[in-house]
Design goal:
Elements lengths: L3 E6 L2 E5 L12 E9 L2 H10 L10 H5 L10 H17 L4 E10 L8 E13 L6 E12 L4 E12 L8
Antiparallel strand pairs: 1-2, 3-5, 4-7, 5-6, 6-7
C-alpha cells in the first residue's frame, strides 16, 4: 500500500499507511511488493536462530542426498517473509491478529528464489464486542517469480473503523 500524505496542521504533513475496516472489500486482491530474493545467509541464520536442527536447511552435503538435491529454505522463514509482505496492505493498522488457519506448503523454496505474495479479502464483518472495530479475513498466497505457488494461508485480523485508529 502506498502511503498517503495527510495534513495534520497547516503546512505539516504525515504519511498515513494501512487500511481501516471500511477499506476492505470481499474479492479485492492486494499484490504485495516488493518481492524478496532469499539468500543462503537468510536461510541459515533463520534456521539456526530458531533452533531448527534439521540439516536439510543448512547442510549442503546432507541436502544433496535428498530428493531436493540442495538445501530447502526453512518454511517458517518463507511464512514470516510472506506475512511481512502483507502487512502494509492487510494489517498496518491492525489491533491484533486473531488467527492463522489452513497454512499449506505446496512447493519447496530454494536459495536464490525470488518470492512475492498477494492477499484476497475473503470475509469482513463488524466486531460484535467492539463497535469501533471490524474483523477481516484474507487468503494470502506466496508465489515464486515464475508464478508457481509455494504457500497459502488464511489470516484474520481485527482492524479499527475509520476515525478510531491510533493514527487517526
Amino acid at each position: 500500500m502506498v502511503a498517503v500524505a495527510k495534513e495534520v496542521a497547516p503546512g505539516r504533513w504525515r504519511a498515513e499507511a494501512g487500511r481501516c475496516f471500511e477499506d476492505f472489500r470481499v474479492g479485492d486482491i492486494y499484490e504485495h511488493r516488493p518481492g524478496r530474493t532469499i539468500s543462503e545467509a537468510d536461510n541459515t541464520w533463520f534456521t539456526l536462530l530458531t533452533m531448527n536442527q534439521h540439516p536439510l536447511h543448512f547442510d549442503a552435503a546432507y541436502a544433496a542426498t535428498t530428493e531436493f538435491g540442495r538445501p530447502v529454505v526453512n518454511s517458517c522463514l518463507t511464512l514470516a517473509i510472506v506475512a511481512g509482505m502483507s502487512v502494509a496492505d492487510v494489517s498496518q493498522r491492525a489491533i491484533a491478529n486473531l488467527g492463522w488457519t489452513d497454512i499449506r506448503l505446496t512447493a519447496p523454496v530454494f536459495v536464490g528464489d525470488t518470492i512475492y505474495a498477494e492477499s484476497e479479502v475473503i470475509a469482513t464483518r463488524q466486531s460484535r464486542s467492539r463497535p469501533a472495530q471490524g474483523i477481516v479475513t484474507v487468503r494470502t498466497t506466496g508465489k515464486k517469480s515464475d508464478g508457481s505457488v509455494f504457500m497459502t494461508y488464511e489470516r484474520t485480523v481485527l482492524v479499527p473503523k475509520r476515525g478510531h485508529g491510533v493514527a487517526d
